[in-house]
Design a protein that fits this description.
Rossmann fold, single chain, 376 residues, elongated, six-stranded parallel beta sheet, 2 domains, alpha/beta
């Protein structure tokens, strides 16, 4: 695998595939300071060619040269390890290094911004993505929506390998609260403009005003919003909560560890994700797996995940529609239970992590079989 060692996605894929009986060696150009890979018996090679260990921001020519150095180092690792497959995660950077190594069979998994944003920035970047995907023997995407976007830069078939959840870990816990007591809205996301927490705060403020205007105090549910995550918008979101007059009802947490997320949703009645863009709705899948109803924007990833139930889709950046959906769920415990149960069923059917890992292992087998037929 050629992928970011610090990414939770890399850690989950590498550990799960190893548990499935596949020997994994990881090459990363991003350092990882933890012991995860050693503890899981995965050999890790780190080429800190971009100076991230020192958190230095290098100019473009230096970064391009650094990638060429990474190619040379990857070739050395390939020579030592003699892999059957090289699988690059994230088309740009890691995909570029893997493609330039010249190794086949090569699999490239697209992750999101590498096809939604990067190739739109310039003609040169578009050509780069087309080159990388053209070098791949197999291109994979976590969703049909992202596969459709990827098809703009790749003429061949694109496999779908969903990035699901451990449905045993992400599972309903106890009985959800009923009646008109406290209703907790929650979200776990990086705090940045792309993920729309500013929209969420405005929708939450509007929903509270709607409740005040339409229901007497004795029939009005108390509402709280909990947001967990780190990111550049932390301070601005905090100030916005005060400006909107909802600060006493908003809990803005720092990021929580991945294994803490199920516990977060066990305390949540409604999960809300109002991203301006989303290539795959893994955050929604996590909440749905816990039996929590979801309100999500009509971003590609969320629309696909929720197309058969499990939540309410609202137009992107539509504060009023989001507030209406949140109010509907705040005032109807029966609807929350119904939608939550439908979401859990959808996840168990389509996004069970064990099934997803089996699909990826099947992709590896197919790629090897094709390579053997061509060479044989």
């Amino acid at each position: 695998m050629v992928s970011d060692a610090g990414s939770i996605h890399t850690k989950r894929w590498s550990a799960a595939l190893k548990d499935a009986g596949i020997s994994i060696v990881l090459f990363s150009i991003t350092p990882d300071t933890g012991e995860f890979y050693r503890e899981n018996g995965i050999r890790l090679y780190v080429s800190d060619v971009l100076g991230r260990k020192g958190k230095k921001k290098r100019p473009l020519p230096a970064r391009l040269y650094a990638h060429l150095r990474a190619v040379r180092e990857l070739k050395k690792v390939i020579s030592e390890e003699r892999p059957d497959i090289v699988h690059a995660h994230y088309a740009t950077s890691y995909g570029l290094v893997a493609a330039m190594s010249g190794f086949h069979p090569l699999i490239v998994s697209v992750w999101g911004s590498d096809v939604y944003e990067f190739p739109r920035q310039s003609a040169v970047k578009r050509l780069m993505v087309e080159y990388i995907l053209g070098k791949a023997d197999r291109v994979l995407s976590t969703s049909r929506a992202m596969a459709a976007e990827t098809a703009k830069y790749h003429k061949g078939p694109i496999g779908i390998t969903p990035f699901g959840v451990d449905t045993g870990l992400f599972a309903p816990r106890g009985i959800r609260r009923d009646g008109h007591d406290e209703v907790v809205f929650g979200t776990v996301k990086t705090l940045s403009h792309k993920y729309g927490q500013d929209i969420l705060l405005r929708a939450f403020a509007r929903m509270r005003k709607m409740l005040e205007d339409s229901l007497p105090l004795d029939r009005r549910p108390a509402t709280v919003l909990e947001i967990a995550g780190d990111g550049p918008d932390y301070d601005s979101l905090l100030f916005l909560a005060y400006d909107l007059g909802i600060a006493p009802y908003v809990v803005l947490r720092k990021a929580i560890a991945h294994d803490e997320v199920p516990g977060f949703y066990s305390r949540t009645d409604v999960a809300v994700f109002l991203s301006r863009a989303e290539s795959f709705g893994v955050s929604a899948v996590e909440a749905m797996s816990c039996g929590v109803p979801v309100v999500a924007s009509a971003a590609d990833g969320f629309s696909e995940v929720l197309e058969d139930g499990g939540g309410i889709i609202v137009p992107i950046e539509d504060v009023e529609a989001a507030a209406d959906a949140m109010m509907k769920l705040a005032t109807d415990p029966g609807l929350r239970r119904k939608i939550g149960a439908a979401g859990r069923e959808k996840v168990c059917s389509c996004y069970d992590w064990k099934k997803n890992v089996a699909v990826m292992a099947g992709e590896y087998s197919s790629v090897l079989e094709r390579a053997e037929r061509v060479s044989g």
